[in-house]
Design a protein that fits this description.
Layout (H helix, E strand, L loop, with lengths): L2 H11 L4 E5 L5 H6 L7 E4 L3 H15 L3 E6 H7 L1 H9 L4 E7 L15 H6 L4 E4 L6 H13 L5 E7 H5 L19 H11 L5 E5 L5 H14 L2 E6 L5 H8 L6 H4 L11 E6 L4 E6 L15 H13 L5 H22 L1
Parallel strand pairs: 1-2, 1-3, 3-4, 4-6, 5-6, 7-8
Antiparallel strand pairs: 9-10
């Protein structure tokens, strides 16, 4: 088994079965291995920015990572803009970048570049394979890092000679199963808060798609809780601050609805006319409970809403039903690709 085959088998075994690619000579062994390793769908793209943009969109819609295959540092540089968007959206992507063969690095060829430095500007994880035998383990680590939570662009750099060399360690490396559903303790605590007046839910990141927003609306109708959308980015504190600034014409009055969700939260508003940063400190003790983690957010919210509406149904049955529905929706989307 070559290093390229080890890479492909580890990707497919761990559910990464689509690769958006713009390969060059240093990635030809990966392309050739596609004929020997079943299960991977290679999608040739005419520009690296299409690869990174397609992988970002794939992750946002399906809730799971695709891979990208790019040629050397300049190829990665061409894809940075959409990798930047993916990083902001917390999209999980396994980004594979070919490197010159290790003996060739010393001659400083025209396309030689510091690939790792390029990758660090948009990646939450960067790894360079150290040998053909290391490729399987390096790929598994990259997949695990891409999943998060939160999801990140995880970049793996593979020198060409490691791809064509024989890997003595046989078989793919299996990534540990990722927990995607909330624990019941958090759900029970959140349910307790939602039954109290003056509570709100902030939906951001993976919870800002159509299904999650519909589930949030039904939850609001069932409990009277206030639901606020933060936008497509993950709900980090600084992003909450930025997304809420346009909604808060009267900061102190509106934030009364959020007193049971956030704790020790500072809101930074930007004056669009004078570009002046103004900081408002919220005095009421607040707290935040993270209910679910990418990628099962919308289904879990809907399961949570149903459990609140019908106390006779156990929550574990609702969670199981949501998992089944999520798997069906992913399958339907893949048929459209």
């Amino acid at each position: 088994m070559t290093g390229a085959e080890s890479l492909l088998r580890t990707l497919v075994t761990n559910g990464v079965d689509t690769c958006f690619m713009n390969p060059g000579t240093s990635e030809m062994h990966f392309v050739a291995a596609l004929d020997r390793v079943p299960g991977m769908r290679g999608v040739l793209c005419l520009f690296e920015g299409v690869c990174s943009g397609a992988a970002d969109g794939y992750a946002r819609v399906l809730g799971q990572p695709a891979s990208t295959l790019l040629h050397l540092g300049p190829g990665l540089a061409n894809g940075l803009a959409n990798f930047h968007n993916a990083r902001k959206a917390r999209s999980p992507i396994v980004n594979i970048v070919g490197e010159h063969a290790t003996p060739h690095l010393a001659v400083d060829a025209p396309l030689s570049a510091d690939i790792a430095t390029f990758a660090k500007t948009v990646s939450g994880f960067v790894r360079t394979a150290t040998s053909a035998d290391d490729i399987g383990q390096a790929t598994a680590e990259t997949i695990l890092a891409a999943w998060g939570p939160p999801g990140v662009v995880a970049s793996l750099i593979i020198p060409a000679d490691y791809s064509w060399s024989e890997a003595m360690l046989g078989g793919p490396v299996v990534v540990p199963k990722i927990r995607t559903m909330p624990d019941f303790g958090r759900l029970e605590k959140a349910a307790e808060l939602l039954r109290k007046p003056g509570t709100a839910i902030l939906l951001g990141g993976a919870a800002s798609n159509q299904k999650a927003l519909e589930a949030g609306a039904r939850l609001a109708a069932a409990t009277g809780v206030k639901v606020e959308q933060l936008g497509p980015m993950a709900a980090r504190c600084d992003e909450i601050e930025r997304n809420l600034e346009t909604k808060l014409a009267n900061t102190n009055e509106i934030l009364e609805a959020y007193t049971r969700i956030l704790r020790e939260f500072k809101l930074n508003r930007v004056d669009a006319e004078r570009y002046k940063r103004v900081q408002d400190t919220i005095h009421e003790p607040l707290r935040k409970i993270t209910l679910v983690e990418f990628p099962a957010t919308s289904r879990a919210i809907d399961s949570f809403r149903k459990a609140l509406e019908d106390s006779s149904l156990t929550l574990d049955k609702r969670v199981e039903a949501s998992r089944t529905a999520l798997a069906e929706s992913r399958s339907q989307f893949k048929k459209l690709l």
